[in-house]
Write a structure and sequence with these properties.
This protein has 339 residues and is of the alpha/beta class. Strands 1, 2, 3, 4, 5, 6, 7, 8, 9 and 10 form a ten-stranded mixed sheet that branches. Helix 7 packs antiparallel against helix 9 and helix 7 packs parallel to helix 11. The N and C termini lie far apart (45 Å).
Length: 339
C-alpha cells in the first residue's frame, strides 16, 4: 500500500480507558471500524448500550451513543491496521510483549500514554513486518464516570512524530505520519506532525509532574490547587527540576517556555482532576512511577537533584498504600466529582 493513501481500515484500542475510549469514539462516529479492548464490565456496557460519549460544551455538548465493537480479549487486535496503545505505563512492557505476535504486518501502533519512554518500550517488542511505533503527545481532558461512559471536558488533539533517527530519515514513514494525521483530522481530531515530538513528550511530562501528584494528594481540581501561592512555588520547583533532567538527557525544554506551558493549564481546565487523582480516589495504582518518579530516577542516574519530584512521588506512593489498606477497614472513597 502506498503510505500516502493509507486508510487504516480496522482500528483497535488496547487499554480502553478514558483516553482510548474518547479517541476510539471519535473514529467510530466518523464511520471507521473500531474495537475497544478493555475491562469486562466496560465491554459488557458497550455491547449492551453502546459507548456513551458526553462532549464538553465547547465541543458542541450533548450525549452521543457511539456503536462500536468491544472485547475483553487482547486477541481482538488481530487484523487491525492501527492500534491505539492506551494502557497504563506500568503495564506497557507486559502488554507489548503479549501484543507483538498478534499484530498484523504493516500495523501502526500509536502510543497514547503519559510518560516519555512508553513508545520505546513498545518498539522493543514490536518490530519487523513493516510494523511501526509512533509516539504521541495527548492533549485531552477526559474521565470514565461509569462503565460504558466517557466524559469529555476539553481539547482532544495530538502531536505525533518519529520515534528514532531512522524513522525521521525514512520518507515512507514520514508519509505514513502525514496519512495518520489526515485520517484523524477527518474524524474531528486535530493532529500535528512534529520532528521534535520527543521534546514535546518531555514538555507534557513536565506539566503532568507539576499537576498530577498535587491534584491527587489534595483531591482538588487544577483551578483550586493554584489558588495557593505556596503551591505555585512548589510547581515552579518541580518544573525547574524536570527542565534540568531533560537537559541532561539531551532534550530541548527551555525553562521560560516550560513555565508558561505549566501556567496555561489551570485556567484552561480549572475543573479537571488529574488522572492520578482519579486513580487514588478509586484505590487504583497510578502512573506516578512514570511521572515524578521517573524524573527522580533519571535525575539520580544523571546527577541532577530532584527533591520536589522525589517528595511528591513518595507522598503519592504513601497515598496509594493507605487507600489499598484503609484504616479501620473503611472502603476507599469515591472518585472526585467532575464538572
Amino acid at each position: 500500500m502506498n503510505a500516502s493513501n493509507e486508510t487504516f481500515g480496522r482500528i483497535a484500542v488496547v487499554g480502553a480507558g478514558a483516553v482510548g475510549n474518547f479517541f476510539g469514539a471519535m473514529l467510530a462516529r466518523a464511520g471507521h471500524a473500531v474495537t475497544l479492548i478493555g475491562r469486562p464490565a466496560h465491554v459488557q456496557a458497550v455491547r449492551e448500550r453502546g459507548l456513551q460519549l458526553h462532549m464538553a460544551p465547547a465541543a458542541g455538548g450533548g450525549v452521543q451513543t457511539v456503536r462500536v465493537d468491544a472485547s475483553s480479549e487482547l486477541a481482538a487486535v488481530r487484523g487491525a491496521d492501527l492500534v491505539l496503545f492506551c494502557v497504563k505505563s506500568p503495564d506497557t512492557e507486559a502488554v507489548a510483549r503479549e501484543l507483538a505476535p498478534l499484530l498484523a504486518e504493516g500495523a501502526l501502533v500509536l502510543s497514547l500514554q503519559n510518560g516519555v519512554d512508553n513508545a520505546e518500550t513498545i518498539a522493543r517488542h514490536v518490530h519487523g513486518g513493516g510494523r511501526a511505533v509512533v509516539p504521541a503527545v495527548v492533549y485531552v481532558a477526559t474521565a470514565m464516570p461509569a462503565p460504558g461512559v466517557v466524559q469529555h471536558f476539553g481539547r482532544g488533539d495530538l502531536v505525533i512524530g518519529p520515534l528514532t533517527a531512522a524513522d525521521a530519515a525514512d520518507a515512507r514513514h514520514a508519509a505514513r505520519l502525514q496519512a495518520l494525521a489526515g485520517f484523524f483530522a477527518a474524524a474531528g481530531v486535530p493532529v500535528r506532525v512534529s520532528a521534535t515530538v520527543l521534546d514535546e513528550l518531555w514538555s507534557k511530562l513536565m506539566v503532568n509532574c507539576a499537576y498530577n501528584a498535587i491534584s491527587a494528594l489534595a483531591q482538588l481540581p487544577y483551578g483550586r490547587i493554584v489558588e495557593l501561592p505556596e503551591i505555585r512555588a512548589l510547581q515552579r520547583a518541580v518544573v525547574e527540576e524536570v527542565v534540568a533532567v531533560a537537559a541532561a538527557e539531551g532534550r530541548r525544554l527551555p525553562l521560560a517556555e516550560a513555565l508558561q506551558a505549566m501556567e496555561r493549564i489551570a485556567p484552561a481546565m480549572p475543573q479537571q482532576f488529574s488522572s492520578t487523582a482519579q486513580d487514588l480516589a478509586r484505590g487504583k495504582p497510578s502512573e506516578i512511577d512514570h511521572l515524578n518518579g521517573y524524573v527522580a530516577r533519571r535525575g539520580a542516574a544523571l546527577g541532577v537533584s530532584t527533591p520536589a519530584n522525589q517528595a511528591l512521588h513518595a507522598l503519592v506512593k504513601l497515598g496509594e498504600a493507605a487507600r489499598a489498606r484503609p484504616a479501620g477497614g473503611a472502603a476507599p472513597s469515591a472518585a472526585p466529582p467532575q464538572a
